[in-house]
Each structure stands twice: as structure tokens, then as C-alpha cells.
Amino acid sequence: MSYQQLEAHQRQIDRLQHLFAICGWDQATMMPEGGSQARAEAMAELEVLLHAKKTAPEVGDWIAAAEGESLSAAQQANLNEIRRHWQDARLLPADLVEALSLAGSRCEHAWRRQRQENDWAGFAPNLGEVVRLSRDVARLRAEALEMRPYDAMLALYEPGMSVVKLDQVFGDLANWLPGLITEVSERQRGEAVLTPVGPFPTEQQKALGLEVMSLIGFDFNHGRLDVSSHPFCGGVPTDVRMTTRYNEEEFVSSLMGIIHETGHARYEQGLPREWLGQPAGEARSMAIHESQSLFCEMQLGHHPAFLSLIAPRIRAHFGEQPALSAANLARLYNRVEPGLIRVDADEVTYPAHVILRYELERDLIEGRIEVADIPELWDAKMQQWLGLRTAGNYRDGCMQDIHWTDGSFGYFPSYTLGAMTAAQLRFALERDLGEMGSVIEAGRLPALFAWLSAKIWQHASLLPTDELLTQATGETLSPRWLRRHLEQRYVGK
Amino acid sequence: MSYQQLEAHQRQIDRLQHLFAICGWDQATMMPEGGSQARAEAMAELEVLLHAKKTAPEVGDWIAAAEGESLSAAQQANLNEIRRHWQDARLLPADLVEALSLAGSRCEHAWRRQRQENDWAGFAPNLGEVVRLSRDVARLRAEALEMRPYDAMLALYEPGMSVVKLDQVFGDLANWLPGLITEVSERQRGEAVLTPVGPFPTEQQKALGLEVMSLIGFDFNHGRLDVSSHPFCGGVPTDVRMTTRYNEEEFVSSLMGIIHETGHARYEQGLPREWLGQPAGEARSMAIHESQSLFCEMQLGHHPAFLSLIAPRIRAHFGEQPALSAANLARLYNRVEPGLIRVDADEVTYPAHVILRYELERDLIEGRIEVADIPELWDAKMQQWLGLRTAGNYRDGCMQDIHWTDGSFGYFPSYTLGAMTAAQLRFALERDLGEMGSVIEAGRLPALFAWLSAKIWQHASLLPTDELLTQATGETLSPRWLRRHLEQRYVGK
Ligand SMILES: [Zn+2]
Ligand SMILES: [Zn+2]
């Protein structure tokens, strides 16, 4: 059967991608500086080889033949995903794939130092090369998929998403979010929040992080925690490689970063074992992935009941101080304050950072702006959304993120789509299990994760995003649940 | 030009082998248990792919065409190495490779428990299967290469080595080594050696190890040190991954293990950059590799002047105690004592262990003895060489090593060839730079390594072993330098 040949072929691809994932993790966590050139070449070589495998002529024949075969619903879903990946792969010529991989590695590698040195002049030409190649990608994809260029990039991360839909949901946010930010800022103005006093030794932070990972169910037999300058969750489902970074002057952001990445990790570890190695067994999309990490971080991690649960563990590692009371931690973690750095942003101002990047990358990919225009536009949009200036401060402005360095244009919207999804999931979960606070207080975290497993993880890519969300929550994506969540938590509506 | 096509093809192979090396390192140092199944499958997939690439039909055509092209001497050397690797890869049918791989895994896996349980009866049939398949390998290689079977196995590790040469050099050792062992044992009988008293915390051992690695020139921009249960030196030349293991009850063996692996690492790091990725740019052979690690360990690391140099550092980490004086460390590290276990042997008795295994595996591969004969022969040879009985003690006798379990017949001689080469290099180096002790005392370690680089590292596989050694030392391999070294160090001749 052709379908069986496709499955065998996908297993081969998956095995080679396994090696790519582990070497990518190593590159970010373990590799010494001097190894970067050879590593970039080795990974580009495998990427070319994978590309050749994915686009082998017989794959199209197998797909065509499999369409006439008698398949189960799950096999049919797998065939759909195989077809989608195959189309994605064959749209691009091998030399473009290789050029983008090399330019991306070079740009990202140099960015690590350039960011520290606020070196926009050094960074801009590297980014320019990545943008130039990414526009080629977008154009080729757009022509073949009959979409506008940015939609064709979105489809890499969010199949079914589009500028039209994004403008709807982000437009909805634009109507109420600025007012909410102002309202919350005013409410919190008089609030006394104590800043925990360090130092917080790395070893203690790591031990605390590992404890909290255990508490929320990370499986250490199938993964580990390491350090990288930009935290991520990589590896493979049976060996998930999570990273964080430590700052001995404060533990707050590293701890919540660990909780966030653990959300990603549990999704990966929770994918259905019987479908591992097949496209239908992969995480559904970046927004769904982010919904799992943001569920862990925002819906669970920032919940006062959860902070009450972990406050004693925090004090056990860092000693008693008033700033480490559960009440103060809740104030600290739910403090809303416009800031320059996306990854440090609270959940109320976070969408502003994403919409800013979305608007820039959409126009960058579609040729309406150039790399040289970014700093000025960044500054203008930061002023407009959050009232902050970034002129001359590239490090905390347009050079703060890693995403554009390797050409991941179309990715940023996933963060806010994920936040919306997480909020929508939370209200659906509460209908089934009761209010989050009481679930946490009753020690029912396993029930909470079992719900996520049943509603999201176990379905992997066996359903399209809209269907996945509908079976989990009763409706497709709606921004009103994020609004309800934020208003409930921050202005007590 | 066909030669250029071969170079491009080799670069591809090298890049994929890079990923294999890093994932292999990860498997031994980082991977959680639950990731092992998927990793094994992923690495096997790449191995199959590499084999297909190495034996692709066009390679033979390119080689034939390149032989008629005008090449530099270095290109010619590279072509010779390419041809050798290509022949090695295509000589064996895939089903024999797979059968041996399976039998080897089975034998090795069962051996781990059988060794503990001294279970020769359980082990012998598994080893018998590995021997049977290895004889097939040896026969096929022998027919194609027109060599005797054991020479065809040696060629996998030591191109140019043969039973005739081994019988010469090992025969020479047999004339003087047993007498020397007796003489040294008698001399050391009354010597008081203090055992350092622990515990020796892992963190301190690691810090000391890193310091000593720096002292002997390990380039941390192109490598790192980690922990694995079986120490090794892996990775790639621009990113060498060294491992060790720590035992908090004693630091002596871990420290010297680090020095040994640093010798391997410096060779890899010192290979000529312009030939990286090509067969001519690889380390020459297993014996030459071992000569570099043994030079570091035995010629340098066990030298009283070197131990004087590092003794203050050792005491800085572990505190003052009489056992950590330079003089006692020299007695400790240069203690000669016949023992059952090869990996714990001192440099005087070590060759006895190797010659014993060489004689057995040579006769085993060439069908003059059978697996059932091993224990009795082992016992007889251990009595003859070291005066020790192993009858009934399989665990510390013929079941102590891992090498035969996966069919690595032909590898053992490299250890003692490496020790001889290291001694020969030392006396050549002393003719150029002066006596080792004064080189060390004058702080001229950089000059010492520059000499090794000029004589060995920079030549990679650009010369055959005999030529390499001749240009470095003025002659081909001779056991008299090892004799001189051992007599000088141990009986003061
Ligand atoms: Zn995330
Ligand atoms: Zn070695």
C-alpha cells in the first residue's frame, strides 16, 4: 500500500530530524564558540538532505495513490499532514533552503554578541540578507499556494491563519487593550509591591526550577533542563530539551520561564506515542504550542493559588523575606507595567509587543518597508502602544528577539493567538473541573493536565486547529476569553 | 575534475559524520534513559544513509578518473585515503554488517551482566557467534585485499601493520619485558607509598582537571569536558568532546584519565585546518592516536617534573597532606604491580596484557583456536607473563574487556604500538629540545606541543605511518625506545 510507504518514508525523515534537533539543542547549550562554523555547515548539509528526501519524486506518486486507498480517519488525517508538509517542502529550491540556513546561522550567531554591544550597524546587513532570502521564500510560497506573501509565511506555523483573520482578532484587541492597560496601571498605582532581595544563587534557582517542573509533571526520564541565552524547548518528544537562563540578582523571571517551557515540554511529552514519527503525531501548530506554555505560565503559574502552593518552596531555597509571601508574589507576578522587553512583559501588555512585530514583519515580508526602516518604526509603535521610547536602544528594541535572525517570519502572531487559546481553554476547563483556584487548592493538578491531555495533547495534528479548538471548548478561536480573563484578574470584573 | 567531485563528496560525508559524532557524545553524556530507543533508531538511520553515500556507484568512477588527473602530493595522499575508505565500506555485504551489528549488540548487552556473574558458559556462545561473523568479515577482506585474515582486520585500525611486523616488535618485548617486570617489582618492594585520603569532591576534581587541561594546552574554544560512564574523546576537530568520570574516594585515576584524553584531544584540535573534512585530514591511525594520549599520560603526565608542577595545584584543591607531595605522587603514579586488569595496569606490565590478547585474537580470527580454548590459554599466558592465575576467574580474565564483544578484532595491538611510538617520539623530541625534565621545568610545554604538532598533528593522514614516524624520529617503529624509557624511569639505567 502506498500509504504504508509514506509512513515508512516519514519515519526516516523523523529519525534524521531527531539528529537535527539534538544538534540544534547542543549548538545553543553546549557548543563552544569555535565549533560554530563546522556545525552550521553540518546542519545545513542535513537540511539539504532532508529537503531532498521530503521532495523525492516518488512521494507525490505515493500521495496520489494513497488518496485512493481505504484509510482510517486517523490515517486520512496523517495523509493530509503528509501532503501539507510535502507541499511546503517542494515549494522551495534546495539552494534557497541552504542559503537561508547558512545566512540564518550566521545572523543568529553574530547577534549573540551584537545584541550585547547594541551593534545595529553590524546586525542590519546580516538581517538584510535573511530578509532578502525570506522574501524569496514568501514569494515562491505565495505563488504556489495562491495566497498573499505573509499568509504564505503564516501557513508554516499556523495552517489556516491569515492576515484577514489576524486583523480581525488583533483589531478586536486594539479596541479594548489600550484602555485596559491604562485602567490596570491606575488601579495598581498605589499598590505596594516588594522586590525580593538577592542574590539568588544559580544552583538554588536551578534546584527550585527542577522542583517546580516535577510539580507540574515534567518527565525527567524523557527530557532535561539546561541553560541557553535564549530559552527554548527543543529535542524530541521522547527526549525533550528545555532551557532557561539565570540571573543571580532575581529569580522571578527565570522561574516563570521554566514554568512556561514546561508547558511546551508537557505537550511534546504528551503527544500520542502511537503516532510519534508521523506528521499527524506532531504538535498541531505554534499557537497551540504556545497555548500550552501560556496555560502553564499565565493561567496556572500566575494564579494566586498556584503562587501560594510554591511560595513555601521558594522560601525554602532563598530564605524568609516579606517579599516572598504568597500575597506579595501574586502582586509581583501580576504587576502590569509597560516595558521594552517582550519576554519580560506581563500578560496585559504582551499582545502590544506581538502586534508591533506582526505589523513590522508583515510589511517587511511584503516589501512595504526595509530593514533600515525598522528602528524608527519600532520606536513609533512602542510610543503609540506603550508610551515608551527606544530610539538608539537597539538592544532593548528591535534587536531583542532571536526570531527574525533565522527568518522565522510569521511566527510572532502565535504568541498572542496562543494566549487567546489558553484563556479559552481555561474557561472550558473550568466548566468541566470547576474554578482554577479550587482545582489547584484541592491538589488536582493531575486532573487539570489530564484534561489538557484529553482535549489537546492526545489529538496532536489529527484534527485541524478549528476542529481541535471546537471539540475542546465548543467554539473556534475568540478573543473574548482573553478579555474576560484579563478583566477578571486585573480589574476584578 | 573527478578529484574535486570526490572532495565535495567527502565533505558531505564528513558533515553528516559531524552530526553522528555530536549525537553519539550526547547519548553518552546527556541523554536521559527514556530517549535511548528513538536515539538508537535515529543513529542507525544515519549510519545506513552514510553507508549508502560512501558506496555510491559514482565514487568508484570518480576514483578511477582521478587516478589519471594531475594532483599535488597532498591531493594524491587524499585520493589514497579516499580509495581506502571506499574499499573498506564496499567490501562487506549489508546483511553481514547487520548480522554482526546485531550479534555484537546482543553479546555486549548480555556481557554486562555475565561479567558480573562470572558466567563464561553464558558468554561463550554469544562470543562464538561474533567470532564466526568476524571470521567472515576477515575472510572477505583478506580475499579482496590479498592479505592474511588477521592483517585484513588490522588494516581497519592500523593501515600498513601486519602479523609479521607485530611478531617482530612484540617478540622483542617478550625478550626483555618479563625480566624488567621482575627487576622493577624487586626494586619497589621496600618503597613506602602513601595513599591520598579523601573524599575528593567532584567539583574540585573537575576544577583541577580543567586547570590541568589548560596547562597542557586544551583549546576550550574548540572543545569541552563532560562526564560519561566510559571516558572517551569524541566530537569533531573544531569541537572536541572529552569525557571523564569522577570517584570521590580517589582522584588519581580520573586526573590521569583527563591527561590521557587531553592527548587525544590536542591531536584532534591540532589537525591541519586546511584538510579538515577530507580523509587525508584525519588522524593517522589508532596507534598514532594512542601515541598522543600516551605521550601526554606516560611521557609527560607521569614524569616527576610534571608531577612537581601540578602537585601544588592538587594541594590547592584538596588541602595539604603528605600523600600529595610531588615525591609521593611520583611514587604513586609510577608504581609497578602485576595485576589481572588491563585498564588498571601500569605502563610496565601493560604490554603483557596487550600481547596476550593479540596472540589470542590473531589465532581466533585465523581459526587456529576456538572460543572454548580461550580460558585455558588466558590462564597459561597470564602465568607466563605476570605470574598470575585466572583459572575459573573469567570476570577478571578473558571476560574483562568490551572489545571482542562487538567484533573489534585487530584493535588491541594499537595500545602497545601507541606506547612504543610515544617513547620513540619522546627520545626524538629530546634530541631537538633537550631532556623532558628540563623542558618541563623551564616552562617550555608550548615548545613541546609545537614539536608534536610539527611532527605528527600537522601531517594528519597525509603520510603513511612508516613515513610519518621516519620524518618525526628518523626511523620506523622500533621497540627499543620503549625499553630505554622503561629502564630509565623504573630501574634507573
Ligand atoms: Zn513559548
Ligand atoms: Zn586512549
UniProtKB/TrEMBL annotation, chains A, B:
<feature type="binding site">
    <location>
        <position position="264"/>
    </location>
    <ligand>
        <name>Zn(2+)</name>
    </ligand>
</feature>
<dbReference type="InterPro" id="IPR001333">
    <property type="entry name" value="Peptidase_M32_Taq"/>
</dbReference>
<dbReference type="GO" id="GO:0008270">
    <property type="term" value="F:zinc ion binding"/>
</dbReference>
<feature type="binding site">
    <location>
        <position position="260"/>
    </location>
    <ligand>
        <name>Zn(2+)</name>
    </ligand>
</feature>
<dbReference type="GO" id="GO:0004181">
    <property type="term" value="F:metallocarboxypeptidase activity"/>
</dbReference>
<feature type="active site" description="Proton donor/acceptor">
    <location>
        <position position="261"/>
    </location>
</feature>
<feature type="binding site">
    <location>
        <position position="290"/>
    </location>
    <ligand>
        <name>Zn(2+)</name>
    </ligand>
</feature>
<keyword id="KW-0862">Zinc</keyword>
<dbReference type="GO" id="GO:0006508">
    <property type="term" value="P:proteolysis"/>
</dbReference>
<protein>
    <recommendedName>
        <fullName>Metal-dependent carboxypeptidase</fullName>
        <ecNumber>3.4.17.19</ecNumber>
    </recommendedName>
</protein>
<keyword id="KW-0121">Carboxypeptidase</keyword>
<comment type="function">
    <text>Broad specificity carboxypetidase that releases amino acids sequentially from the C-terminus, including neutral, aromatic, polar and basic residues.</text>
</comment>
<dbReference type="Pfam" id="PF02074">
    <property type="entry name" value="Peptidase_M32"/>
</dbReference>
<keyword id="KW-0378">Hydrolase</keyword>
<keyword id="KW-0645">Protease</keyword>
<keyword id="KW-0482">Metalloprotease</keyword>
<keyword id="KW-0479">Metal-binding</keyword>
<comment type="similarity">
    <text>Belongs to the peptidase M32 family.</text>
</comment>
